[in-house]
Design goal:
By secondary structure, this protein is α/β, with parallel strands linked by helices. The strands form six sheets. The chain has a six-stranded mixed β-sheet with strand order 12-16-17-15-14-13. The chain is globular, with a radius of gyration of 31 Å. A hairpin with a 5-residue loop joins strand 19 and strand 20. The chain is built from 22 helices and 25 strands. The chain has five domains: 133 residues, HPT domain (Four Helix Bundle (Hemerythrin (Met), subunit A), Up-down Bundle); 88 residues; 138 residues, Histidine kinase-like ATPase, C-terminal domain (Heat Shock Protein 90, 2-Layer Sandwich), CATH 3.30.565; 143 residues, OB fold (Dihydrolipoamide Acetyltransferase, E2P) (Beta Barrel), CATH 2.40.50; 117 residues, Response regulator (Rossmann fold), CATH 3.40.50.2300. The longest helix has 43 residues.
């Protein structure tokens, strides 16, 4: 039954999206009889599917929706705003019932309330409990229908159109199949607010309600992926044959070495060398050919996988017409939404991250930008305000413009508010440029609203936009003309799977800085360095004084001998930070490289200043840094950053050894411990770890359980049996959390057993400190 329920959820989400968009269109065209008929059919089909699945409460609500739509179709009821409100509230109720239903249970209170409202409409009255009536709080676009979880998110088109229309319609693609992926281990789940009860803080974070993610993949993409995978399997067979040839070559060399030691005949040696040269030449030719075949295959597979992850922005934009409708009614304004380029395709992870910024920008345009009708008409504008969303693909990046034709940004009011909230000083206020004044609205806690309402005045919103755009390694520009318009321009990557990075070396380690955050690279001479008030180190560059920071210090590392701001000449990188520029001193610049970005593993959580990890072309692992977050951790304001401390940190504690077959896990745990001041070494399996432990001194071992060869339990047992290593502290960190597995780990001799889903970074570091005596 669960399989049928999952299938029904997919169908229901599609039909509910069509009901919602159809009702909004009906409000604009109340005499459209064909549209009423289509809506009636949608409700009827949804009722039948719910009944077959055993969701009688869902079927009952849909039956009452049918009754209302039937009267509208027969001309017995007019299409009025209150009727549309009630039907929209019913679709919200059905969505909640579907998402929270099990095969034998639904929320009867939710169903009963929806039915009572619909019956009130049928009886000629309106239930005062209707949550979407004028004056109530406007609905947040439902977080449970975000790109990651909505089946509607899958309805996609193959082309990037530029259709411009006041209300987005819902298109279907027939050439699609469904792929599902289960998200495990999402603890502390939070419920999204009901559609009629938004929370101003609800969008400041990730939605966690869905246990199963569904995304549609076009059948032609799946077919192409299948074909390419088959060719890669064939190529793998050929490479394995080459591997056997290498093994034969190795045996031949070994035989030659043995004979040479026995002073074999020179002629025989010459013959064998010629045979060896022929084998090597043939092997080289074969490998060259195989790589020539495999390289484009891998590129095509990678491209197709990226395409499979791409969704049209329409998935997000289709949620906005109703949001604009309710928000404008709440504010007592008339606003139209126009969209262009909604078929522009982006990575689904980018789409998820864009949801909050777009919602906040639209809300801000309605609440702060668009004037009331009387004020607009007095200034010669039409009574109806306009909000435009325009998206465009520019190479490997996406440009999204959110523009309103409202009153613009009042620079005088912005400065007064910033001064009143101590966000700037009087001296800074006198020196700020118009662009810098515009960017003050991105500061946390900033709001010019004189009254706190459900939409504005809480100081929450625009800082969320800035932070999410920075997390996407994007940029945000603000343009405004008093009395005419306000325009926000977001520039973000189309995908987060790969990025162009600048490789830098700091204290003997290689890191990646996203080039999107880099202004330029420079060489800092000692004569270009000044010390500002408060001791801040500044770098004079092109008539500007930029804060100068040691990247090693921000990373919690010991600067190298050359890595101090007092060095004669230093390579450095100028990066963007909240619309300003900051200089980061490094040891070496190693050039740029396109890297495949890997996200942080779940049990590690968020590592400040680190957005991911990668393996470079040389095979060296590297962390991908988030410069803005590193700088923000150092100090909240870029203009008052403290000077770098070049004094090396002293440590007498032996290194910690991390043992895990996952490269990402090793790197993330290593980053946590190094940021806490520990020296760290790593091993990929139990045997490698044991060899290192026998040869070198370590203060503690952190090991996974499931690894090739010796697992974590076997490694621990062997350590306890070794005379010198028997007392070495061992912490097991694993996803295996059953009582029997815990018991086995502790019986093997582990000092602590940490389950990854219960992982807490702060407690983990404290635990290590206790074991090593810090």
């Amino acid at each position: 039954m669960n399989d049928f329920l999952d299938i029904f959820r997919i169908e229901a989400e599609e039909r509910l999206e069509r009901l919602t968009s159809g009702l909004l269109a009906l409000e604009q065209s109340p005499d459209n009889e064909d549209l009423v008929t289509d809506l009636f059919r949608e409700a009827h089909s949804l009722k039948g599917a719910a009944a077959v699945t055993g969701l009688e409460d869902v079927a009952a609500v849909c039956h009452r929706m049918e009754d209302v739509l039937n009267r509208m179709r027969d001309g017995q009821m007019r299409t009025e705003a209150d009727v549309v409100d009630t039907l929209l509230a019913a679709t919200d109720a059905v969505r909640t019932l579907v998402e929270t239903a099990s095969a034998d249970h639904t929320d009867r209170d939710e169903a009963g309330q929806a039915i009572r409202r619909l019956e009130a409409v049928l009886n000629g009255g309106f239930d005062s409990g209707n949550e979407t009536m004028s004056g109530s709080k406007p609905p947040e676009p439902d977080g449970r229908s975000t790109p990651a979880t909505s089946a509607a998110a899958a309805s996609e088109s193959a082309s990037d159109g530029t259709d411009s229309r006041p209300v987005s319609s819902h298109d279907e693609s027939s050439n699609e199949v469904i792929a599902t992926r289960t998200e495990a281990g999402k603890a502390d789940e939070e419920q999204s607010p009901p559609a009629g009860i938004p929370d101003d803080h609800s969008t400041d974070g990730q939605d966690r309600t869905a246990s199963v993610e569904m995304v549609r993949i076009r059948a032609d993409i799946l077919e192409s992926l299948g074909n390419l995978t088959g060719e890669l399997l064939t190529a793998r067979c050929r490479l394995r044959a080459r591997q056997r040839a290498i093994q034969s070559l190795h045996r031949l060399v070994r035989e030659m070495t043995g004979k040479h030691r026995r002073r074999a005949d020179a002629a025989q040696m010459q013959k064998q060398l010629e045979a060896l040269r022929a084998v090597v030449r043939e092997l080289q030719d074969d490998f060259t050919e195989d790589l020539r075949v495999v390289d484009p295959l891998i590129e095509m597979v990678h491209e197709q996988v990226l395409n499979a992850r791409m969704l049209p922005l329409r998935v997000l934009f289709d949620q906005l017409p109703r949001f604009v409708r309710e928000c404008s009614r709440h504010e007592g304004k008339t606003v139209e939404l126009f969209v262009e380029g909604q078929e522009t395709r982006v990575d689904r992870h980018v789409l998820e991250k864009l949801r909050d910024p777009i919602i906040h920008l639209v809300r801000n345009a309605i609440s702060h930008g668009i004037e009331p009708a009387e004020e607009r008409q007095a200034s010669g504008k039409p009574a109806t305000g306009r909000v435009r969303l325009i998206s465009q693909r520019c190479g490997d990046r996406i440009r999204i413009v959110c523009e309103d034709d409202g009153r613009g940004i009042d620079h005088r009011q912005v400065l007064e508010t910033a001064l009143a909230r101590a966000l700037i000083t009087d001296e800074e206020a006198r020196r700020l440029t118009p662009d810098q004044i515009n960017r003050l609205i991105l500061r946390p806690g900033f709001s010019t609203a004189s009254v706190v309402s459900d939409l504005s005045g809480r100081g929450v919103g625009m800082d969320v936009v800035a932070r999410h755009v920075e997390e996407l390694r994007g940029t945000l520009q603000i343009e405004s003309e008093a009395g005419q318009f306000t325009r926000f321009v977001l520039d973000v990557p189309a995908t987060v799977a790969t990025l162009e990075g600048l490789l830098v070396e700091v204290s003997g380690h290689v890191y990646v800085l996203p080039t999107a955050a880099v202004v330029r690279t420079v060489r800092v001479r000692s004569s270009d360095i000044d010390h500002a008030a408060g001791g801040a180190v500044m770098f004079r560059w092109e008539n500007q004084a930029l804060p100068l920071l040691e990247l090693a210090t921000l990373l919690g590392r010991r600067p190298s001998s050359a890595g101090t701001t007092q060095a004669a000449v230093r390579p450095a990188v100028i990066v963007r930070y909240r619309g300003e520029s900051v200089t980061l001193a490094v040891d070496r610049l190693l050039g740029t490289q396109t890297v495949v970005a890997k996200g942080l593993i779940e049990h590690v959580g968020h590592v400040p200043g680190v957005s991911g990890a990668t393996v470079l072309g040389s095979g060296v692992p590297a962390l991908i840094l988030e410069p803005s977050e590193l700088i923000e951790r150092h100090d909240g304001r870029a203009t008052q950053l403290a000077p770098c401390d070049s004094e090396p940190r002293q440590t007498t504690i032996a290194p910690v050894l991390i043992v895990d077959d996952s490269l990402t896990t090793r790197m993330m745990e290593k980053a946590i411990l190094e940021s806490a001041g520990y020296e760290v070494d790593v091993a990929a399996n139990g045997e490698e770890a044991f060899r290192k432990l026998v040869q070198h001194n370590y203060s503690l071992v952190i090991t996974d359980v499931e690894m090739p060869g010796w697992d974590g339990f076997e490694l621990t047992r062997r350590l306890r049996a070794h005379p010198r290593l028997a007392e070495l502290p061992v912490i097991i960190v694993t996803s295996l959390g059953s009582p029997d597995q815990r018991r086995e780990g502790l019986e093997a001799g582990a000092n602590a057993y940490v389950v990854k889903r219960e992982f807490d970074q702060h407690e983990f570091v404290e635990m290590i400190a206790r074991f090593v005596g810090r």
